[in-house]
Design a protein that fits this description.
The protein is about 85% helix and about 0% strand. The relative contact order is 0.08.
């Protein structure tokens, strides 16, 4: 069952259009902000 789920997820992922440069930048910024928040609050980082 898990193999089927991951195979369908991979197919869905392959069908999605690539992110535009603006979307990619937004996503990178989000990841960076989240990383900084986790460094500032190690307890929260451990829970999430």
């Amino acid at each position: 069952m898990d193999a089927l789920v991951s195979a369908s997820s991979a197919a869905i992922g392959a069908a999605k259009p690539p992110l535009s440069p603006a979307e990619e930048a937004t996503f990178q910024t989000f990841k960076e902000e989240r990383r900084i928040r986790h460094q500032a609050d190690p307890e929260k980082a451990r829970r999430s």
